[in-house]
Design goal:
Strand content of chain A: under 5%
Strand order of the largest sheet of chain B: 5-6-7-3-8-9
Structural class of chain B: alpha/beta
Number of strands of chain A: 0
Number of helices of chain A: 10
Order of helices and strands of chain B: EEEHEEHHHEHEHEEH
Order of helices and strands of chain A: HHHHHHHHHH
Strand content of chain B: 25-35%
Oligomer: heterodimer
Radius of gyration of chain B: 17 Å
Structural class of chain A: mainly alpha
Number of helices of chain B: 7
Distance between the termini of chain A: 28 Å
Helix content of chain A: over 70%
Largest sheet of chain B: 6 strands, mixed
Shape of chain B: globular
Radius of gyration of chain A: 18 Å
Distance between the termini of chain B: 39 Å
Number of strands of chain B: 9
Largest interface: A-B, 25 and 31 residues
Shape of chain A: globular
Chain lengths: ~230, ~230
């Protein structure tokens, strides 16, 4: 078990180094976050919505933008594995698909979480909304959703990586399956915006956890099959 | 004479890609310590056979039985990460294999000067040497080399041949080599057996521990057929 975890640690380090050298995922996430926030802000402003309406649609806009920016940013996440087929070297070295998958999930979760926080702030700025009171709770919701999102996208990015259509295939196949994450994130954000805290007995965190568990079980079991010839 | 332990048994393996049958009920077995040259024209099935033996390609039917999990594989793809440095690549693969000794191989293959440079910035020949280092990490018992000399210059080839010889003479820890190659001039002298593939099957086999004479005759026959 210790050896297994040590290998996982080595793989996480590798994913971090690869991302740090290319900065592809983070650049795409950050650019998408800025671009979508400005577009949404401009759209809402030209629609001359009052403050109360803008506040109500803030959760929905936040999660639509987050989902779109995340799914469109990960299309190149597996490119570096495919360039030299490093993953085959790892499989030959006794690394399991589950370890490779979990390492990717950890790094994706980290970058998605940072991008979520950035998006919360940018969107609040462009809609002129004060989120300072709920920022901490929003971040926790964002990290939970990011982890669920990463669990699914790490698997689907591997499935789509061998297709010539991966640029459009990934958002198309992932967005419908990610609907539970979108719904949970939006509902929890709505509660935070309206009440300043999550209601007791709210089902959304449990639903999010169930969705994440489902995605993760699928990823752990299917990732190796998805990347192997 | 005591029989050497069998390390590999390929039985009736078939592999197709779409409508193209690359391997057709191919069977082959190898004993410990053999250096088997796989020769055959382009498309004969050499690379696919090595990938199936490595476990990277699933045969459609038939079986591949390996008596070891320690497999080194040098393919057309290097199985490395271009954005990582040579050191980071080698350390990564050494760590996941639990192999502590990697600096010796690096210095024997004369990579010490480029060890901190990103792999993608090296010449094809130097990249191939890094690929060889990775394939030889952790003292694998079965080493599969697919066209190992295709990107190597004279120096690189002699370093590779030296590394193969060194591993063959390492007492009990003798490695078994399966080498797919067109470079018969440089690889034939180290072979203990030659297997000729054509159209997805074995068409000639010199047998284990074949004499130089038999190996030469099999290779001459192969050259005649491919002339």
């Amino acid at each position: 078990m210790i050896r297994w975890l040590r290998t996982l640690g080595v793989l996480i380090q590798k994913e971090w180094r690869l991302e740090w050298r290319s900065k592809e995922l983070f650049t795409l996430l950050a650019c998408n976050a800025v671009l979508f926030s400005v577009l949404v802000g401009a759209g809402v402003s030209s629609a001359v919505l009052d403050v109360a309406t803008a506040e109500k649609i803030y959760p929905m806009l936040l999660w639509v933008v987050f989902m779109l920016s995340s799914t469109t940013s990960v299309t190149r996440f597996n490119e570096q594995e495919l360039e030299g087929r490093g993953f085959e070297g790892l499989l030959l070295s006794g690394v399991s698909g589950a370890q490779m998958y979990l390492a990717k999930v950890v790094i994706m979760t980290l970058f998605f979480s940072v991008s979520f926080v950035l998006l919360v702030l940018l969107l609040a700025l462009s809609l002129d909304k004060d989120v300072s009171g709920i920022l901490g709770s929003l971040c926790i919701v964002g990290i939970g959703a990011s982890s669920a999102l990463a669990s699914l996208l790490a698997l689907l990015a591997a499935v789509a990586s061998t297709s010539k259509l991966k640029g459009i295939l990934l958002p198309i196949i992932s967005l419908p399956v990610l609907f539970p994450v979108f719904l949970c994130g939006m509902e929890m954000t709505m509660e935070l915006v309206l009440n300043g805290a999550l209601n007791e007995g709210t089902p959304w965190p449990i639903i999010l956890l169930c969705a994440e568990t489902l995605y993760m079980v699928a990823g752990i079991n299917l990732f190796e099959m998805a990347i192997k010839e | 004479m005591e029989a050497l332990p069998r390390v590999l048994e390929v039985k009736d393996v078939t592999k197709t890609f779409g409508s193209l049958s690359v391997l057709k009920r191919l069977s082959l077995s190898c004993d410990s310590g053999e250096v088997v040259l796989l020769v055959g024209a382009n498309g004969a099935g050499k690379s696919t056979l090595l990938r199936a033996i490595a476990g990277l390609a699933r045969p459609d039917c038939g079986s591949v039985t390996r008596d070891t999990t320690r497999i080194g594989f040098l393919s057309h793809h290097l199985f490395l990460y271009g954005r990582l440095s040579v050191r980071e690549n080698i350390k990564l693969f050494a760590s996941v294999q639990g192999a502590s000794e990697w600096s010796d191989v690096v210095s024997r293959l004369e990579l010490s000067k480029v060890v901190d440079r990103p792999l993608s910035e090296l010449s094809k020949g130097m990249q191939a040497r890094v690929g060889i280092t990775r394939a030889f990490l952790g003292s694998p018992e079965l080493i599969l080399l697919d066209e190992p000399t295709s990107n190597l210059d004279e120096k690189g080839t002699s370093l590779l041949l030296g590394e193969i010889e060194r591993r063959r003479s390492e007492g009990d820890a003798r490695s078994t080599f399966l080498i797919a190659t067109h470079d018969l001039h440089r690889m034939a002298p180290i072979a203990t057996r030659v297997v000729v593939l054509a159209d997805g099957n074995v068409v000639a086999d010199s047998g284990a521990d074949a004499s130089r004479d038999i190996i030469s005759r099999v290779l001459d026959r192969y050259r005649e057929v491919n002339r």
